[in-house]
Amino acid sequence: MTSTSSSKAVRAVSLATAGYAVYSLVKPEHLRRALGSDDEMWDTVARVFGVRDLAVSAVGVLGSPTAARAALTIRTALDLGDAALLGLTLDGDARTKAVGAAGGWGLLNLAVLGRSR
Questions:
Q1: How much is the average pLDDT of 16-33?
Q2: 3-state SS class at 97
Q3: How many CB atoms neighbour CB 23 within 10 A?
Q4: In whole angstroms, what is the distance from residue 73 CA to residue 43 CA?
Q5: Which of 15, 52, 85, 116 has a Cα at 20 to 30 A from 59?
Q6: CA 31 from chain center: how many Å?
Q7: Which percentage of the chain shows pLDDT scores above 70?
C-alpha cells in the first residue's frame, strides 16, 4: 500500500469510528438494546464510548499522518480491550454480540495498521 493510500485508509477507519461515536452520543440506548438489557447503565457506557472514541478519532481524522497512525493504534488497543472486558462481563448472546463488534473493530484497525507500515 502506498503512503498516500495507507494514510487515507487510516483516516477512513478513524472517520468511521467518529461516526459511530456520534451515534453513541445521540442514541446511547442502542447499546442497551443490542445487548438485550433493560439496565440504563449501558446508556452511560455508550456515552463514555462515544466521548472517548470521538476524541481519539478526531486525532485520526485531523492529525498529521504520524498522529493519525498513533490514534489508530490507541483505538485498536481500546477496541480489543473492550472486547476482552465485555467478554468477561457479559453472558450468552450479549457476550457474542459485544465481543464480535468490539473485536471486529479492533481486528479491522489492526489490519489497516499492518498495511500502513
A1: 97
A2: helix
A3: 14
A4: 26
A5: 85
A6: 13
A7: 97
